[in-house]
Specification:
Length: about 220
């Protein structure tokens, strides 16, 4: 019986790659990569010559069954995403579930993921929190916001730069102008920045200075006082 390794990759700074991750990627029979061009640069940097196949949201439904059979036959496979931990707002869940259901061992390595540093450095309560990832663009978005307006735990969202101001305006609308917000962008990279304040203050900041890069937002939960 083979094995599936879920291997986190750096979200920006290559120094965040672990020794174990490099070793595993060198030793497995196959690496599944979200984008082989992006991952190819990472593998070249760490002198990893393992063969790669493309595994992304558009083809994972078709390939899962065959991949499970290969692991049942003895192959070891590593799954990586473009950045961060596989299956966290990235492909990986379907293959992991199929492995679990078919008796194939799954080993997820600890490593980089964007929402953890964003939460910890936000200054918001992190003893209890919920991860929302990317909200729906249209259908169901308002319903989700209405439900979250009563949430008392810190909320974590992934947002693309061109939707940041719209999203912050929705926070003002559904959560209130005074709700505490922390926006972290380009985590671990050269131009890393975290902007904290009320929803209204943070919105005004990014209206004056449009954001670029990868973004994680932490929003304080509804106060019970």
């Amino acid at each position: 019986m083979g094995k599936l390794f879920l291997v986190p990759t750096p979200i920006g700074n290559l120094e965040d790659m672990t020794f174990r991750a490099i070793r595993v990627l060198k030793e497995v029979d196959l690496i599944l990569a979200e984008d082989t061009r992006t991952s190819g640069k990472l593998l070249k940097h760490f002198e990893i010559g393992t063969h790669m196949h493309s595994h992304h949201m558009h083809n994972e439904h078709k390939t899962v069954e065959n991949l499970v059979k290969r692991m049942q036959a003895g192959e070891t496979i590593a799954l990586i995403s473009d950045a961060g931990t596989p299956a966290i707002s990235d492909p990986g869940f379907l293959l992991t579930r199929a492995c679990v259901e078919n008796g194939v061992e799954v080993d997820c390595l600890p490593g980089a993921t964007a929402f953890v540093p964003a939460l910890v450095n936000s200054g918001l309560p992190n003893d209890k929190f919920i991860f929302e990832g990317f909200l729906p663009d249209k259908k169901g978005r308002q319903t989700r916001f209405l439900a979250l307006s009563e949430e008392t735990r810190t909320m974590i969202f992934y947002v693309s730069p061109h939707k940041l101001n719209k999203t912050l305006a929705e926070y003002v609308q559904y959560f209130g102008a005074e709700r505490p917000v922390s926006v972290s962008r380009e985590l671990s990279k050269l131009h890393e920045e975290t902007v904290r304040g009320t929803a209204e203050e943070v919105l005004k900041h990014f209206e004056a200075k449009p954001a670029k890069g990868e973004i994680v937002i932490c929003v304080g939960g509804k106060s019970l006082k």
